[in-house]
Specification:
alpha/beta; six-stranded mixed sheet; binds adenosine-5'-diphosphate; binds magnesium ion; P-loop_NTPase; Ectoine/hydroxyectoine ABC transporter ATP-binding protein EhuA; transport; ABC_transporter-like_CS; ABC_ATPase_HisP-typ
Length: 255
């Protein structure tokens, strides 16, 4: 595999009972690139992200992150499921930011960020603290270190969630509609932080309905429908001159 590819998903299939949520979905994301996934509700966007970070187990196909097969170990022609410890190790390298703020409610912003590095990466507390403060500063919230999530706006909580993901030094961050639950006036501050992150070279896969963000920040855009990657290509091409009529109809409807 070319070593500038960070994520390679090949024909990923996922069934829920008899319902096929992912139907041979393939995608490649290069190191340092931003890929936005767009598409109607129920098309499998969240399921696709959840398969990448092993919150769901795929039923078919394969995903590599940084050249490493995710969730399985290959032994000749056989695939074996890996242990829970191995799954945790793989998942650690993949940050995730959800639609609903998923901060620990009983911890301050600073404590939320410190938790993973200290508990999981065994970082010394002083170092974790310094890094967490630097990350809070980076997302514009240095003055909110001691605040609990309930004392922060939705936009501020999402920025802490991004800082927390960064605290784990991930290779990749997955965003699942990170601004969909926000009041309209709070959307931009989160998109701005994500844009900064993209400029810093972080590899990101972003499920979003913010086509302006996709146009300005994404390198590639993937349009999903009915569990399939209906169209994948350079952001400007997919958004401005889609080849698929279904992509064109969706983009027109969202605008
Ligand atoms: P999207 O994020 O594009 O809105 P999802 O990936 O959440 O779509 O869901 C794709 C389809 O799979 C939907 O029809 C949804 O109802 C179904 N689905 C998702 N998760 C589950 C689950 N745990 N059990 C059963 N069906 C599910
Ligand atoms: Mg979803």
């Amino acid at each position: 595999m070319s070593n500038d590819i960070l994520v390679k998903a090949v024909e990923v299939t996922k069934n829920f009972g008899s319902f096929r949520a992912l139907d041979a979905a393939s995608l490649e994301v290069k190191k340092g690139e931003v890929c936005c996934i767009i598409g109607p509700s129920g098309s499998g966007k969240s399921t696709f992200l959840r398969c990448i970070n092993l919150l769901e187990r795929m039923d078919g196909g394969a995903i590599w992150v940084n050249g490493e097969l995710i969730g399985y170990r290959r032994d000749g022609d056989h695939l074996h499921e890996i242990s829970d410890a191995e799954i945790s190790r793989q998942r650690r390298r993949i940050g995730m930011v959800f639609q609903r703020f998923n901060l620990f409610p009983h911890m301050t912003a600073l404590e939320n960020i410190i938790e993973g590095p200290v508990q999981v990466l065994n970082e010394p507390m002083a170092e974790a603290r310094d890094r967490a403060m630097a990350l809070l500063d980076r997302v514009g919230l240095a003055d909110k270190a001691g605040h609990y999530p309930s004392e922060l706006s939705g936009g501020q909580q999402q920025r802490v969630a991004i800082a927390r993901a960064l605290g784990m030094r991930p290779d990749l961050i997955l965003f699942d509609e990170p601004t969909s639950a926000l009041d309209p006036e709070l959307v931009q501050e989160v998109l701005d932080v994500m844009k900064d992150l993209a400029s810093s070279g972080m590899t990101m896969i972003v499920v979003t309905h913010e086509l302006g963000f996709a146009r300005n920040v994404a390198n590639t855009v993937a349009f999903m429908e009915a569990g399939k990657m209906e169209e994948v290509g350079p952001a400007s091409q997919v958004l401005s001159m889609p080849k698929s009529t279904r992509t064109a109809e969706f983009i027109k409807a969202v605008h």
